[in-house]
Amino acid sequence: MGMPERARLPGVDRRPEQIVCHVDMDCFYAACERLREPELRGEPVVVGMNAEETSANR
Hints:
This protein has 58 residues and is α+β, with helices and mostly antiparallel strands. The chain has one helix at residues 28-36; strands at residues 45-49, 52-57.
């Protein structure tokens, strides 16, 4: 199911802003980084992409 389409105004051809939030509930990405970098064990970990925080684990 997609989001319902909004009514379009004449002469306006823009997509509405969309915000997507991914929650790493099982800390998968942080666990992968800890496997790749063993010195991170026992340290808080934040996995980022494009200079934005995407996953954090304590």
